[in-house]
Amino acid sequence: MHPPPPAADAMDFSQNSLFGYMEDLQELTIIERPVRRSLKTPEEIERLTVDEDLSDIERAVYLLSAGQDIQGTSVIANLPFLMRQNPAETLRRVLPKVREVLPVAGVEMQLTAAVSFLTILQEESVSVHTYAHSFLQVILLHLEHRDAGVSNAWLETLLSVIEVLPKETLRHEILNPLVSKAQLSQTVQSRLVSCKILGKMTNKFDAHTIKREILPLVKSLCQDVEYEVRSCMCRQLENIAQGIGTELTKSVVLPELIELSRDEGSSVRLAAFETLVNLLDVFDTDDRSQTILPLVKSFCEKSFKADESILISLSFHLGKLCHGLYGIFTPDQHLRFLEFYKKLCTLGLQQENGHNENQIPPQILEQEKKYISVRKNCAYNFPAMIVFVDPKNFHMELYSTFFCLCHDPEVPVRYTIAICFYELSSLPDLIPALTAAEQRAAASLKWRTHEKLLQKYACLPHIISSDQIYYRFLQRMFTIVMTNNVLPVQKAASRTLCIFLRYNRKQEQRHEVIQKLIEQLGQGKSYWNRLRFLDTCEFIIEIFSKSFFCKYFFLPAIELTHDPVANVRMKLCYLLPKVKSTLKIPADKHLLQQLEMCVRKLLCQEKDKDVLAIVKRTVLELDRMEMSMDAFQKKFYEKDLLDQEKEREELLLMEMEQLEKEKQQSDGRPMSEKNFEKKRRDTKTPTALPKSLPISVPGPSGTSTPSTSKEIKKSKLTRSQSFNNQAFHAKYGSLDKCASKSPTVGYTPSVSGLGKTSVVSLTDDSFRTRNASSAPTAFSPAPSLPGTSRGTSNSVDPKSSASKDTQPRKATLKSRKSNP
C-alpha cells in the first residue's frame, strides 16, 4: 500500500519552502521599516518646533538657517508671498539665506526655487532693475546643475527673464559670458543651454549686433561635433530668422539649414526639415522651387526607410508644407506628393488584423502605435489636402482616402477626421447626415449619446443659416422637448432650442417659436410639459438678456403659481430668485409688484405642506436679494455689463434684419455674414450704447448715441415691432408696453464643439428646399390665443391636468419633490 498523500494545507518543511517563508518575512520587514522611520523622536520634534511669536520674515530666516530641508523648501515656496507682503525685508534678510542654501540644496528645493523666482517675475513684485540685481546671478549660477530636470527648470526661468531685461543688462550679464560658454571646450549641457539662450535673445538686439556677435556663435554651434547640439541649435534657427530679417536669413540661415538637412544624424535632419517648413513664408518663390522643394522631395523619398518618428513629424507638417509650396509643384510632382499622402493615410492597415496583442513582440506594438499617430496626423491635415487638390476634384482624388480615414479601425483617427468636418468645403449632404445621426441616436437606448449630440447641435448657428436651422432642426428640438421620456435629453434639446432662438435672424420666426413655447409648454395640458417650460425659462435667463425674459416670459412663468400640480408650483418656487434677478428698478417696478402678489397668494392659499415649506424659504431668499438698478452699480458691474452686451446683440439682430430687408428690396441679395460680423463688432464699443441704457463706468463722459440718423430711425423702427401679427392675447401683448428698456443685444455665449471661427458657411440656397409657405405645420402662423390663463378660456379640470397625461398621481408628485 502506498502512504496517503499529504493534506493540501499541511506545512512543507523542504529547503525551497523554507527559503520562500524567509523571503516573505523579509518583505514584511521591508514594509515595516518606512513606518518606523516616519516616527519622530522627541529631539526631532523639538527641532521642528518654531516659536509662534516670530514674524513671517523672522521665521523664514530661522528655518533657512537652522531648519531641515523640508522646512527650507517650504520657505522658498512661500517666497512670492513674502515678496508681496514685505519686499524690502525679504530682499535684505531672506534672499541672502536662500543664496547660501541653494548650492548644497537637493533637487526638490532647487525646483521649488526656480518656480518661485519665475512667479516673482510674473507677479512684478519688484522692478526689473531690482529683479536683475537680486535674482539674475542666482539663476545663472544654477543653469548647469548636474540634474537635467533642475537645469531645465532654471533655464525656463532665465528665458522668461530675458524677455523683460533691458538690452545693456542682457549684453553684460548674459551675452558676453555666453561667448565662452558656447565653446567646444565646455560641456555638452553648457552648449545646449547656449543654443536656447541665443534663440531667445536674437530679437532683443539690432541686426548689426546680431550679425557681429550672435551669428558667429550660431554658426559654430550648428557645426558642433555633438549631434544633440547641432539639433538643438537647428531648432532655434526659426527664432533667429525672425530677428535678423529676410536678407540675412537667406544668406546665413538657409545655407546652414541645407547643410543640416544632409546631416548624418536623423534627429538633426528632422530638426532641419521642420525648421524649413516653418520658415517657408520667409523665402521667395525661387528659393522654394530651386532649393527647398528638392530637399523636401528627397526627405519624403527617404522617410519610409528611416525611423517611424520621422514619418510622424512629416505627416504632422504635411498641411503646412502643401500650403507653403502650393503653385510650385509640377503636375507630376503634384501627383506624386498626393500619392505619398494617400500612402501615409493607410500606413499600417495592410497588416493582418485579428491578432492577439499578447502574442505580438513589444517592438511591433510600438511600431503600430507610431503608424496610428501617422494616420491621425493625416486626418488632421485632411482639410489642407482638399485645398491642395482643389475642392472640385474632391470626389475623384480624395473621397476614397476620406472614406478610409472615416472607417479607420482606431478611434483617435476617426475622432480627428470627425472634428475636421467643419473646416471642409460645403457638403450638400451635411444637414441630412446630421438629421439621420440624431434619429439614429434617438432610436437607440444610449440616451447619453443622444444628449451629447443635441448639446453639440448648439454650434450650428455658427455654421449654417438661421433659415436652415428653422426649417430642419428647430421643430425637431421642440418635438424632443415635448415627447421624449428622458429628462437629460429633454433639457439638452431645450437649451439647444434656446440657442437656435437666440441666433435666429427673422423676427417673425422668433415670435412663432416664443408663442409655441408659451402655448404648448407653459400652458400645456401635461404637467410634464409645464415643468419643461420652467427649464426653458431658466435657459432663457442664462442665454438672453434680462429685458428679453421680462418682455416675453416673465408673466407666463409667474402665472404657474396657480398651477394645479404641486410639483410645478414647487419648481417655480426654486426658480423665483432667478426670475427676480431679471428685474431692474424702477423700470420693472410693476413686474416686481406682480411677483410679490403671486408670492403672497402662495403663502396664503398654498395647501401642500411641502410646497408651503419651500415657499417660506424662497420668501426669505427673495427678501435678502438686492435689486439691480437701471444705472450701473459697482456690486453688479460685471453682471450688468454682460447683460448690456446681450441686449446690444439682440438689438443688432433686429437691425440686421431690417437692413437685410432693405437690401433685398434694392438689389435682391441678402446681407452677407461678413458685413453682419463687422456690424456686430462695431456695436460692441461703449460709444454705441442707446440712450435708454445709462451707465456709470470709468472713462470718457458723455451720452452716446447712434452715429447717424438712419441708424436711429432703424433702431426705433425695430423696437416698435411687436406681436401684433402673432395675435398674442392682450395680457401677453401688454408685455411690449411693460418693457420700457429697449431689447438690445450682446454677449455671444461660447458654444462647445466649435474649435475655430474661420469656417466656411454653407450657402443658404444649397439647402433651402422650401419657403415659408411650406414650413412645418407646427410653425405656421398661429391663430389668436383664446386666453392666457388656464383658469379662464383655457380652463382645465385640475384632476385632468395634474398628471403627465390625464390623471393625478400623488405618489409621483411626492417622489419628484426632491428633484424638481
Automatic annotation (TrEMBL):
Which compartments is it annotated to reside in?
Cytoplasm
Which gene does this sequence derive from?
A: PPP4R4
Indicate the principal place this protein occupies in or around the cell: cytoplasm
Give the Basic residues compositional bias ranges: 811-820
Protein task:
Putative regulatory subunit of serine/threonine-protein phosphatase 4.
> What is the name of this protein?
Serine/threonine-protein phosphatase 4 regulatory subunit 4
Biased segments, Basic and acidic residues type = 660-684
Quaternary structure annotation from Swiss-Prot or TrEMBL: Serine/threonine-protein phosphatase 4 (PP4) occurs in different assemblies of the catalytic and one or more regulatory subunits. Component of the PP4 complex PPP4C-PPP4R4.
InterPro entries recorded: ARM-like, ARM-type_fold, HEAT_type_2, PPP4R4
From the broadest rank down, the organism's phylogenetic lineage runs:
Eukaryota, Metazoa, Chordata, Craniata, Vertebrata
HEAT repeats span 214-251, 253-291
Record's compositionally biased regions (Polar residues):
741-751, 787-805
Keywords in alphabetical order:
Coiled coil, Cytoplasm, Phosphoprotein, Repeat
Looking at the UniProt record for this protein, which Gene Ontology cellular component terms does it annotate, in alphabetical order? cytosol; protein serine/threonine phosphatase complex
Superkingdom in the source lineage? Eukaryota
Q: Name one GO molecular function term.
A: protein phosphatase regulator activity
Repeat recorded as keyword:
yes
Q: Which PROSITE patterns match?
A: HEAT_REPEAT (PS50077)
Ranges of biased composition (kind: Low complexity): 698-709, 772-786
